[in-house]
Amino acid sequence: MSSEPTSTSQAVPRDADGRLAGDMACVQCGYNLRGLEPQGRCPECGSPVGESLRQDLLRFAGAEALRRVGRGAAMIVIGTLAHMAAVGLRVTFEWPLRSRITTPMLHLLRGGCALVSLVSGAVVLVGIWWLTGRLRGAEGRRRADGVALATGTVLSLAVLADRAAFLLLPLWQAVAILWPADTAMALIGGCLAMAHVRRLARRGPDETLARQARGVWWGLLVTAGIQLVGIVLVLFGGFREAALGAQIAGIGGLGMVIFGVAAGVLLVRLRRHLRSIADAL
Questions:
Q1: Are residues 122 and 166 in the same domain?
Q2: Residues 82 and 150 occupy one common structural domain
Q3: I want to staple 21 with a disulfide (CB 3.0 to 4.6 A). Which of 13, 97, 213, 238 is the partner?
Q4: How far apart are alpha carbons 227 and 252 in whole angstroms?
């Protein structure tokens, strides 16, 4: 292997035959690609030379910026799990124990779950901001990153409003109102996150992670759509329609749980991928 070249985000000069006239490290193995054609392959690992010439690769974004995006992915997972635990505790214990526990204990249960839910919403808000933050070295992708950041901001405000409603409303009203709202936000947020994971994975580059993110994106889209159809039937249909809607919503909800877990796993994998790139810089 040749000596380690110096990699920058500047265009590499070419000689009269179109070969690389300056030092450029292969993004996969670090081999110096100087003297090779842009359409060729690295003689050390076989990866395309053009892949190393892309100016939007994550290695040009800076180590601290990559770590921040990785922390954002982790915070979304942690905040979502905390909210689900709070909702599960309240639904599990408030209705069955309503007639057995004192009013102060009921308020304590409701307030504790709501506080955890509200704090988790703030954690998700920060996570969305960090995950969708613009990274340098991607001039051609600024529009997509800007859309992701704007959508993430709106979604973050919706998440906080959702948590505030969970804090203030009685349980039956919270379920009736927040069930469709949470499904819609899970659909928007999950698809947003997976689309962003796919873009970041392609800039890794990690095509396997990008393909998996696309698959989860479609899974969330389909299952959330099924659940929303069921919710509409439950809330606005007659007795038969409501019974059918409950079954449809249950199927969609189970699918959303499965693909939601898959999305969380991909966010964790993305964090590890970003950390490995940052540690190598």
A1: yes
A2: yes
A3: 13
A4: 4
| One domain for residues 174 and 120 | yes
Q: Are 253 and 224 in contact (CB under 8 A)?
A: no
pLDDT of 162-196, one tens digit each? 666 666 666 666 666 777 777 777 777 778 788 88
Rounded to two decimals, what is the model's pTM?
0.68
Distance CA 216, CA 197 (A): 11
Amino acid at 112: G
Give the range of the structural domain holding residue 222, as residue numbers without chain letter.
63-270
- Are 152 and 239 contained in the same domain? yes
Cα separation, 128 vs 122, whole angstroms:
10
Question: How many H helices and E strands in the chain?
Answer: 7, 0
Distance in angstroms (rounded) separating the CA atoms of residues 230 and 235 = 9
Helix (H, G, I), strand (E, B) or coil at 37: coil
**φ and ψ at residue 14, rounded to 5 degrees:** -120, 150
Shared domain check, 75 and 47? no
Q: Which amino acid, 184?
A: A
20 with 124, same domain: the answer is no
Residues 6+ apart with CB under 8 A from 270: 70, 73, 197, 200, 201, 209
Is 281 contained in some domain?
A: no
Per the structure, the count of domains in the chain is 2
Residue 18 DSSP class: S
- Give me 171's structure tokens: 């349980």
Q: At 74, which amino acid appears?
A: A
pLDDT at 50 over 50: yes
CB 32 within 8 A of CB 23: yes
